[in-house]
Design goal:
The complex is a heterotrimer. Chain A has helices at about 45-55, 95-105, 110-125, 140-155, 170-185, 200-205, 220-225, 230-235; strands spanning about 5-10, 25-30, 35-40, 60-65, 70, 80-85, 160, 190-195, 205-210, 215-220, 245-250, 255-260, 265, 275-280, 285, 295-300, 305-310, 315-325, 335, 345. By secondary structure, chain A is an alpha+beta fold. The longest helix of chain A has 18 residues, at about 170-185. The radius of gyration of chain A is 24 Å and the shape is globular. By secondary structure, chain B is mostly helical. Chain B has two domains: about 1-75, no CATH class; about 80-295, Orthogonal Bundle (MetI-like fold). In chain B, about 70% of the residues lie in helices and about 0% in strands. Chain B contains 14 helices and no strands. The longest helix of chain B has about 35 residues, at about 85-120. The radius of gyration of chain B is 24 Å and the shape is globular. By secondary structure, chain C is an all-alpha fold. Chain C folds into two domains: about 1-45; about 60-305, MetI-like fold (Orthogonal Bundle), CATH 1.10.3720. Chain C has helices spanning about 1-45, 60-70, 70-100, 110-115, 115-120, 125-135, 140-150, 160-190, 195-200, 205-220, 220-235, 240-245, 260-270, 270-295, 300-305. Classes of the chains: A alpha+beta, B mainly alpha, C mainly alpha. Chains in contact: A-B, A-C, B-C. At the B-C interface, α1, α4, α5, α6 and α7 of B face α1, α3, α4, α5 and α6 of C.
Chain lengths: ~350, ~300, ~300
């Protein structure tokens, strides 16, 4: 169990010194026993950060500390951590038992203990029956478990995961996700988990680090990320369907109008222009009332328990999630009701959150 | 005329242009067509060798008639018995084996380490060095014949097996390195990263992970090295005389400008060719991968 | 501060490891090939004929000047050109066509592909013997067949006539190299995704057009490699010539290529200096031909777009 601290960590790739750094001035602390996700689109620097914590890549400047000890100048095998790779990285020429035991053997753990730990990990992940098989005979899901077992058997202070579920099909992914959560509850080890899937990050994490283009966008609990996104990037990245972000112009004191739609909101701000954010599932469709947006239904996407209705407001599209199968039809004129929605506002230039 | 269901009769034997519709990969040729094709190809590939084999197993008088007499009762292994009991034939044969194996071992040891370094540690000038390896193939051996002769003489290695081994090593190493770099490149980097996290140092990664994974490629390259060493004629002729002579040299000696002992020549030819043929067929899948696919990517 | 130096330390250790692994091999090659090569160049600057005694004056580029005007060299170049055109261009062209034919499924396909390696694996010396057995004027099987089927009236002296000997040589070399080139082309063909042929079909391209506009451009890499490698092999041919002609280089020098001429000069005429210069010239020729192929066929930017 360990606490991980990043202090002004920076990574620039040699030969690309003119552009923005791959990782730009990251500073945060991952508490002991916490499950923290690094979430962001591809290229945002999350994998690079993970590799730096693991010691697979060098830190250009800044420090990484585990339990107060500087580790950024230690080799990967001297830091007490285990890594689960996206492609599992199982040694094809060794069977499952040897794959799991390999790291222990390299660390000169006594043989009886190796045997006990391997069986223990295999049992936990329900792969004891394939211990003598080679990886190529296993299914994708089984290989994934072997990768997990290999990490667990090490009993490290820190677990690092690099998008471990992205190679699984959707059904298996959901199943394994729940199992990961259970595993973390049992083992309680500090875990850092890289993913681009915001659903994964939300369901698994104690806290989430949202990154974009090498920079830290927000570090908070799932609740904070969802209900108080610090930037418009976080707001649009987290939450499905995507949050509606529309430009709005100041119409009078405390009042902003979304151009060409009739939608107006009250905000205690003074900027001439802001970006207003409204989540689709917090809005509703209904008949006309003053101050609401009028629009024409363009597309209806039924999901079963809800339907996403995309409304054309004239100069922008607005998505509303309504329960069940909606009775509206394409081409209907509707009004969007935002009265019960939480209002978000972001600065047009910096993207920073403007309201409470 | 893109017939999708009609069987295609291949009458193209000998025609220089490709047949009409571009054949789709899964389409089957007409039965007549494909039988003809296969038969022709097999004849092409095997006939010369088979004829030489036949020549070695029959008395030459029987074969030199207007209608060669292939009566099985005439089959005889006399030529083989004769050659294989003659020390002046056995010695070169043993020499070829010894030189071949030694060269292969040295080349594989030095070459695999070198290839691993090239594959794993990318550095500036790597592609030029690889290209250089290929360029060595461009050197006609004749250029180096006399200098090597003088060099070996100076070290007392003329007409001695170590001299030949050293020379072959120099020529075969570039080929070995070139092939092995391709095989080492195929190992996914995440495996080596996992090994790093598992606690391996550089040497352990190379020996415990890279080499076992490239094992088939290593085997094929070793076989290729042996084949190249065994088949060499020119260098052996120039750099050896009586004691270190090799099999190809001895085999070539059976031919003469005016008179020729055909049966012995055929027998010697078969004995010279069979070991490398067997090796090539055994390792063919991996040899093709190493040589051919390296080329396609290049 | 210490972060940077630690990373540098690791990089330095990496480098040391890499160099340590590769140095022995590189050293062996450079020393054992480089030194003789240098010596050969050195030798070619001397008039050094062991038949004429031990006086070796330095003549600088004199040998090279001589070989440029030597009629024997010109003839050898002519034969080399003839031989190379047929084996390189003919070989690669045939290989492409045969590979296209072999690229379909048929019974016995795997057997054929395995056996394709046989000619490649046969040692060149043995190749010479095999073809001598077939084409020998007095006892070769080819004459027996021709006489027996009545195609000719008397034995053809394949290996006694300079022109015929050269053609036998071309045939023998083609036999040996064609299957391997086919393997190269087959590998290239299998790298072409089948979908683009389907798309072309829908777009209305017929077989020949598909061959010209899809198959050939996508085979550029393997074809260039084959041309380069085969040029090298063809220019270096030696063993087969030796065995077919009894070490003489052919009736009336019929098969004396530039490479073989260098051999004869050095070892038969014992003219080491001139021979060395001929050998160097042969090497230069190989390099020039390779460069020619690279320049002619190297990927150009527009072609990269077109191939998409």
């Amino acid at each position: 169990m360990a606490e991980i601290e990043l202090v002004n960590v920076q990574k620039t790739y040699p030969g690309r010194k003119e552009g923005p750094p791959a990782v730009d001035d990251l500073s945060y602390t991952i508490g002991d026993g916490q499950f923290v996700s690094l979430l962001g689109p591809s290229g945002c620097g999350k994998s690079t950060t993970l590799n730096m914590i693991a010691g697979l890549e060098d830190v250009t400047s800044g420090e990484i500390l585990i339990d107060g000890q500087r580790v950024d100048d230690l080799d990967a095998d001297k830091r007490d951590l285990a890594f689960v790779f996206q492609d599992y990285a199982l040694y094809p020429h060794m069977n499952v038992y040897e794959n799991i035991a390999f790291g222990l053997r390299m660390r000169k753990v006594p043989k009886p203990e190796i045997d006990q730990r391997v069986h223990d990990a295999a049992r936990r992940l329900d792969i004891e029956h394939v211990l003598r098989d080679k990886p190529r005979r296993l299914s994708g899901g089984q290989r994934q478990r072997v990768a997990l077992a290999r990490a667990i058997a090490r009993r490290p202070a820190v677990f690092l995961f690099d998008e471990p579920l992205s190679n699984l099909d959707a059904l298996l992914r959901d199943q394994t996700r729940s199992e990961l959560k259970l595993l973390h509850a049992e083992l309680g080890a500090t875990s850092v988990y890289v993913t681009h899937d915001q659903e994964e990050a939300m369901t698994l994490s104690d806290r989430i680090v949202v990154m974009s283009r090498g920079k830290l966008e927000q570090y908070g609990t799932p609740y904070e990320i969802y209900h108080r996104p610090a930037t418009d990037f976080v707001a649009s990245f987290v939450g499905k369907p995507r949050m509606n972000l529309l430009p709005a112009r100041r119409g009078g004191a405390g009042r902003y109008d979304v151009a060409g739609s009739g939608l107006g909101v009250e905000l205690p701000l003074s900027q001439p222009e802001v970006r207003v954010g409204l989540r689709p599932e917090e809005c509703a469709l209904r008949d006309a009332a003053p101050g609401d947006a009028h629009g024409t239904v363009k597309v209806i996407e039924p999901l079963g328990n809800a339907s996403d209705v995309i409304v054309d407001l004239g100069q922008a599209l607005f998505t509303v999630r309504v329960p069940g199968f909606s009775s509206v039809r394409v081409g209907d004129r509707v009004q969007v009701d935002t009265s019960s929605a939480r209002l978000h506002a972001f600065d047009v230039e910096t993207g920073r959150r403007l309201v409470d | 005329m893109s017939a999708t269901t009609a069987p295609r009769v291949d009458t193209s034997a000998g025609s220089p242009r490709p047949p009409g519709p571009r054949p789709r990969r899964r389409r089957r040729l007409g039965t007549v067509g494909h039988r003809v094709l296969v038969a022709l190809l097999l004849v092409y590939l095997l006939a010369p060798f088979v004829w030489m084999l036949v020549y070695s197993l029959y008395p030459s008088s029987a074969l030199q008639q207007a209608r060669p007499d292939l009566d099985p009762s005439l089959l005889t292994g006399a030529s083989y018995a004769r050659l294989l009991s003659d020390t002046s034939f056995l010695v070169p044969m043993a020499n070829s084996a010894v030189v071949g194996i030694s060269t292969t071992i040295i080349c594989m040891v030095l070459g695999s380490a070198c290839a691993y370094a090239f594959a794993r540690y990318r550095f500036r000038g790597r592609s030029t060095l690889l290209l250089g390896m290929l360029t060595v193939q461009a050197i006609p051996v004749i250029v180096l014949a006399v200098p090597l002769f003088i060099l070996l003489r100076a070290f007392g290695l003329y007409d001695r097996l170590p001299g030949l081994i050293v020379t072959y090593t120099a020529f075969i190493l570039p080929l070995v390195v070139w092939m092995l770099v391709g095989f080492f490149d195929e190992i996914p980097p995440s495996l080596e990263r996992a090994a790093r996290i598992d606690g391996c140092n550089r040497l352990q990664i190379m020996v415990k992970i890279a080499f076992p994974l490239a094992a088939p490629g290593l085997a094929a390259t070793a076989i290729l090295a042996f084949i190249t060493s065994w088949s060499d004629f020119f260098l052996a002729k120039v750099l050896t005389s009586t004691s270190a002579s090799t099999l190809p040299v001895k085999t070539a000696a059976f031919q003469g400008l005016f008179a020729m002992d055909y049966t012995s020549a055929a027998t010697a030819g078969v004995i010279t060719a069979v070991p490398v043929l067997v090796l090539a067929l055994v390792a063919q899948k991996w040899i093709i991968r190493g040589l051919v696919e390296g080329a396609v990517k290049g | 501060m210490s972060t940077v130096s630690r990373a540098d330390l690791r990089r330095r250790r990496d480098l040391r490891f890499g160099v340590g692994l590769s140095l022995p091999a590189v050293a062996v090659v450079v020393l054992l090939l480089g030194y003789p090569m240098g010596y050969a160049l050195y030798m070619s600057g001397f008039s050094w004929n062991d038949k004429l005694g031990s006086y070796h004056p330095f003549v600088g580029l004199g040998n090279y000047r001589d070989l440029l005007v030597d009629p024997a060299v010109h003839r050898a170049l002519g034969r080399t050109l003839y031989f190379s055109v047929f084996t390189v261009l003919g070989g690669v062209a045939l290989a492409v066509l045969i590979a296209v034919l072999l690229n379909v499924e048929f019974r016995g396909r795997t057997l054929v592909r395995v056996l394709l390696l046989v000619p490649w694996a046969v040692p060149p010396v043995v190749n010479g013997i095999m073809w001598k057995l077939i084409f020998d004027g007095s006892s070769g099987i080819m004459n027996t067949i021709l006489l027996g089927t009545g195609l000719v009236d008397e034995r053809v002296q394949w290996l006694a006539d300079p022109g015929l000997t050269m053609n036998v040589l071309v045939f023998a070399e083609l036999w040996k190299l064609l299957p391997f080139l086919c393997l190269l082309m087959l590998a290239g063909l299998q790298g072409i995704p089948t979908n683009i042929y389907k798309a072309a079909r829908i777009d209305g391209a017929n077989g020949w057009q598909r061959f010209r506009r899809i198959t050939l451009p996508n085979l550029r890499g393997p074809i260039m490699f084959a041309l380069i490698v085969q040029s090298m092999w063809s220019l270096k041919v030696f063993d087969t010539i030796y065995v077919l002609t009894g070490g003489s280089g052919g009736p009336a020098e019929g098969t004396t290529t530039i490479n073989f001429l260098a051999y004869l000069t050095t070892f038969s005429n014992l003219d080491r200096g001139y021979g060395a210069s001929l050998a160097v010239a042969a090497m230069v020729l190989i390099v020039l031909v390779t460069l020619m192929w690279v320049l002619l066929l190297g990927r150009r930017r527009e072609d990269r777009e077109e191939a998409r």
